[in-house]
């Protein structure tokens, strides 16, 4: 096959800039990820949007921040601004495990090699640029900037940080999915305005002096948070701040937020309304090569790309509002869906890739089965301030019809280039349990489940009950585990009907706020009774901009300000995690002794088959 010309990618080097006949770049993007020109990678999306707006864009991917900083200088000075992102993950989550151990690989780097981005990458990159080019504005964005836009607790440093705008010295921050504010910013700078003048754009944040008047924008109202200095002294005030930020982030018509930081004032403009179908299509239909930049060929595959290169993302957002999850904080709780035409166009593009063998790895989204779901009466949604549409119960205004999704599955199946299309994203199983979801009037959930199980499961189906304790699940904003039992029963019945053996793989979290050690022992016993030997497990990590992070740091729930106990020491966290692996010989004595100490011999018997009598433990 003939190789594509290098000019099909956005330029990474000065030579590539010159090949395009450009003397100067309008914007230079600095990214902590390798450059993959695919709609699943934020730098590519941002670069292609800027290109579609007529800008000349270059990318500096994974610059060396420890040498003479030549990478930051190689493309010169941009006409308008530098755009900085840590990449598709927060750099600290990317680097460290829940136990704060350094990871040995990086999925967004060729060959999976670690060490190609710094800790707190957004801040490090931005400060370097400010030193080299003090007169060039810096715009920061991506998930790291988005989730750290106000005073936040950093688990890895174990302290509160101010807004990342303060530490990074950047001029402006775009939070959430950046297409809408970015197009407005580009139009502003092209019209001759400085970045610092664009203070009336939705979904951006900036810092000004407290002594200066706030910009007057339409009918915007302003909500004031407790200052960063107050938060340092008062954990309860910090927790109260979070509730305000989450509520405003999930509104259709939100208020502007301000927070004092020293003599400065952080200003966070309200978000844009969720993208419409045409806007989503416009973003996904840009001329991506769908390939990593050719410069990486000799360095090995990029694991994150290998995982998604034959997958299709059909929607964004999640209305689950789980306490430990950052999706709604970054993508929003309202679902933004692509059109069927755009999805099928991408499927067609994938089938034409030379190494495609006919198998799509995923037809999904943040939660696989939320495509096109929204309020039946959107005027009710416009007034809603709830962080979740399905907790503690499913809103009766939520249309949970799975038929649009079932129809897409069938159309993809019918494509002549597709042998099998799998659903690799996690399925929100509670939407499919009639006892929990009363909105299944015409039975389309059963039709969806049958289609999913018989056509789209790649050996195993992933679901995420996360826990078995109802008390812990309430803190997580997840439904009772009894609904997982109901889903499993339905799943098993359909599987038996068609003679299929495709196990369910449930995901669980240990040491989440509200979870006691005894709850973990119960979880292990209950899942053992269901026939599971758990593999897909994780220890809770407090990530910024989540309810669970606020509880971990402050000790109280931000909505009630009531205390919630949380495992915090390394020993407490490891103790909870060990119960997942009751079936491993090296943990059996520890579990037996620990449950004796906790006065729960009944759980020891369920897990290990031991009984306690006067002469000791026996099988």
UniProtKB/TrEMBL annotation:
Under the heading SUPFAM superfamilies, the entry gives: Radical SAM enzymes
Q: Enumerate the PANTHER family for this protein.
A: UPF0313 PROTEIN YGIQ
Q: Which residues bind [4Fe-4S] cluster?
A: 318, 322, 325
SMART domains, alphabetically?
Answer: Elp3
> What is the required cofactor set for this protein?
[4Fe-4S] cluster
Name of the protein: YgiQ family radical SAM protein
Recite the UniProt cofactor note for this protein.
Answer: Binds 1 [4Fe-4S] cluster. The cluster is coordinated with 3 cysteines and an exchangeable S-adenosyl-L-methionine.
